[in-house]
Here is the input.
Amino acid sequence: MNDIPHISIPDYGSIMNSASIQNPFQNYTPKTVLVVGNGFDLSLKMKTSYHDFAGSKFWPFADKEKYAESSLPYFLNNNYDKAKSWFDLEELLAIYASSNNIENNIHKGDSSFIEKDKDYFNTLVSSLTDYLLQEQDNFVERMRDIHGTRRASVPHILLQMLEKKESLSIFSFNYTNLHLLARQFLLGFDADIHYVHGSLRDNDIILGAGDARQLDENYFDFYKSVNERYKSNNLIEELSDADEVYIFGHSLAKNDHDYFSEFFDMAIHERKGVFHNRKIKLRIFTKDTKSSLEIKKQIMVLTNHHLTGLYAHCDFKVYKTDELDGSELMEDLQNENS
Here is the structure.
């Protein structure tokens, strides 16, 4: 009657030390995302900036006297000296097509004027395609004359390191063929590449404004996402689930905030969950001190003025490519990934 059943208390210490309990990270493959923008091509000495295009023989609006004062060509020609990058070109397009642009207000009821602007826009895209194809071909020709280690560059070193990653997603905001460029470094680079705004390879490049811009209804088809060539991609989801994010040569500018806002909103907070108790590794490659400050201004907007949160909850570092020594970068990246 007084017998008390024996209760066996497990030895939790021995269980926790048992080989049967696995480290949850032992078989976990970190997810890596690479995002490339026009600064990637520029660092390869390719003349792919808007300023280069607008000063070339491919610029379709060179005959300035030909265009009406408030037309799209006139506006772009008048702002040529203010624009250096693709961010500037798309910003100019967004400003011109915006609902509060006085030129558009003047011509709101003039359907023939608006149709001409749309024809000019299509001509711009076609001429840009021809120009970039030439620049891509020029790069391939230059690389044929360069041998051995002289081919090495910051983009080369980064791609060489990333091609060893088991789980790698690449999203290019460039129009150039990244596989073709990588082959010039003699890399066996066969990772899938998602071209966010189309590519020269598929002859479907997309130019225009981001969804967040307020465009006049007459210029609705200036939105990039409205373009019939626009395709679905998983960039937002891949960034949100990434353990390592490398951004090379992308300005994070206003017209592309739609793609990055969720990631940066998440990144300024502590990660939760069994596989997310380590900091996200965020590496940004940009040209110099000036462009580094511009990037941080954009991040300040994307984080609702909480850049300090990014430093607190991420392993965050900015590389300035103009100040990088290739061997030092290689050693740094190897140490990080050892």
About this structure: The mean pLDDT is 85. The two ends are 64 Å apart (CA to CA). Residues 111-144 form the longest helix (34 residues).
